[in-house]
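User: I'm designing a mutation panel for 2-amino-3-carboxymuconate-6-semialdehyde decarboxylase and want to avoid disrupting the core. Could you give me a predicted structure to guide residue selection? Please restate the sequence first so the numbering is unambiguous.

Assistant: Good idea. Sequence first, for numbering, then the predicted structure tokens:
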Amino acid sequence: MRVDFHTHIIPEDLPDFAKKYGQDQWPIMHRTCACGANIMVGGKVFREVTDQVWSPEKRIYDMDREGIDIQVLSPIPVTFSYWAPSDAALAMSRIQNDFISDTVRKNPNRFIGLGTVPLQDCQTAIKEMDRCVHELNLYGIEIGTNVNGDNLDSPELIEFFEMAEKWDVPLFIHPWETMAKDRTPRHNFMYTVGMPSETALAAASLIWSGIMERFPKLKVSFAHGGGSFPYILPRLDKGWEVWPHLRLTTHPPSHYARNFYFDSLNYDPLNIKYLIDRFGHDRIMLGSDYPFLLREIPPGKVIDSMSELTDEQKGFILGENAMRFLNVTEKRRKDGKKNHDSRRETAKSGN
């Protein structure tokens, strides 16, 4: 069974919050044709999208064509809106969470949902996380790598992480509002350099601050193979070694990094092998970044090409790890396996 852990979705009829609340930073959907739209921010095109990003039917068509049994749906990070007043950001979160929950409800065998919360207000974020996982049947929460320039080790977020651990809510950390934005507009470096660096900073902040030591059962995963974090981890260890006066943890960073999960989206068998060698095959989850331009097509292509992996290891990376990370029940795993086998038999018969 193949589970694409990293895919994004947005409501086709996302309300115009700029008109309602007055700020121009809200993302607005501007339709360009029957099968496409521009996501506008501040009157400028932020991203061109197709109906793949809102249509469950189009997604399922692509999934069947590319061999994906289940997509894990998460919001597009530009909609996090941590900069906004918390009540307005909550309204944006609730619209998306309701939409994702409804999409999953209508297609329970093909989708699993992650929610979003207004992290700029910890108490409001906790209440919406509660609603997501205990009322909307979402399986986790996607959060950004910083909150208005504050790293994830901000004291304001401690209670959020505490409740995520208490309720066993998996967190998917995705880069947004990346560092050095003034230096990365050219060449689209925000996506290829800024995002991996931003992810590394988020991961390092969670470890060095002691959050991962304080909440050892907290489930955390990172987009894009963890960005540059896996490759600078030895340097973080060296810093911990030579600066004892800065230590806030009992063990060096690599000790706590073993608890992290990563999607597989780094395009290269050598990089996937490095992730597996450092963290284990049970910590890597297939992720494609569907439906955006930088996505892997078909999902899992690199993993499939790796002859050094056993079929069992590939099975964990391609599906089992995501289901385990998200606390998906054994019944749903079995149902998903049956649906997977049924689709494969249909494909073989040519029907």
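For picking mutation sites, this is relevant: Residues 100 and 113 are 6 Å apart (CA to CA). The two ends are 20 Å apart (CA to CA).
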